[in-house]
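Data deposition worksheet. Section B asks for the primary sequence of the deposited chain exactly as it was used as input, without tags or linkers unless they were present during the calculation. Section C holds the resulting structure in C-alpha cell form. Section D is free text for depositor observations; keep each observation to a single sentence. Incomplete worksheets are returned to the depositor.
Section A, Depositor: J.P.
Section B:
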Amino acid sequence: MKISLCCVQGLCAERDFKVVNGGLTDGPVRCLRHVPGTRCVVTNDGLSSDLQVWDLGGDDSDVIRRTGSIEGRRSVSEGGSRIAARLSSQPQVLHGAQSSDVRLTQLTSGQTLYKLETDSADPLSSLHFVSDAVFLAGCCSGNVYIADTRTSAAPQLSPPPASSGESVLWWTDASAGPSSCRLVRLSSSGRAAISDLRNLGGAVSQAQLDVQTRRCDLDDVRVSWAPKLDGCIAVSGFSGAVQIHNTAVWRTEPQEAQPLFEHRGHAVSAQSDDGVFVTSHVWHPERPRTLLSAGSDGSVHVWDWVDQSAASC
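Section C:
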C-alpha cells in the first residue's frame, strides 16, 4: 500500500503527522472507531458482524495489539457492522449490521446493555451518538431510527424524503450545531436533504449535488458535518474528489448546488490509468478547514480549503 501526504499551508509530514504506534491485522479493516477516554479501537472486517478490539499501546509499548472480540448477531452480513462509541465510565460500543441487530455492548464484560427493538431488518449505513444516551441508526433505505438507551420505549422512525421511485442507497450524518441538532441524508443519486432532529416531519432544505453517480459503493461514500463550521458538509466516495458544500444556502425545494470547494488531489496525483476514487474522509477536530482523505490507491492527503465564492468577492 502506498501512503502519501499532501501537505498545505504549514502542514508537514513527520512534523505535524507522525506514526506513533503500529501493528498488523490478519484480515481487512472496513470500519474502525476509537472508544473515547480509552486507548482502545474497535474494528470490523466487513466479512461478518463480529468486532475486533485493539489496544493502542502505552508508555511501555508502541505496538497495537488485538486484545479481544465481540460476537455479532450474524455470522455473515453484507457490508459488515457499523460502529459508534461514546464516552462513559465503562467503555461501550454501539454496533450492528441491520436495524434489528443494533445493540450497545460493554467492552470489559461483553454484556449487552441495550437492544434496538424493531421488526425491520434494513441494512445499516451508519450509527451515530447525538448525545450521551440518544443515537441514530441510519439505514441504506433512507429510514433513520432515533433511540434513547435510557428507556425501553420504541424508537422513533424518520422515513426518507419522498423520491421519484428510483432505487437508491442513503447515507446519514448528524451534528449538534449552535442552533439545532441537524441530520443530513445523502442518496446515491446525489440528492441531499437536511432535517431538524427536534421536528422530523419533513426536510428543512434540500439540494441536488453534482456528483458522479455511475459508481457508488456502500462502504466508500461519506457525508459529514464540519465540527467547527456551522452548516458545512463534506461529501466523498462518488469519484476522486471531495466536495465541500454550504447547506445554509439550500432551499426547501431541491435545486442544483455547486460546491464551495472541490479537492481533486487524489485523481490528479494518481499513478494508475484505472482512475482513483476517494474511499474516506474526516474533518480535523480543531482546525476548521482541514480535512484528511484517503484514495483507493492507498494515498492519504491532508489539506486545507478556501471558500472560492468568498475569495472572489
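Section D:
The domain at 20-159 is CATH 2.130.10.10 (Methylamine Dehydrogenase; Chain H).
The chain is about 5% helix and 40% strand.
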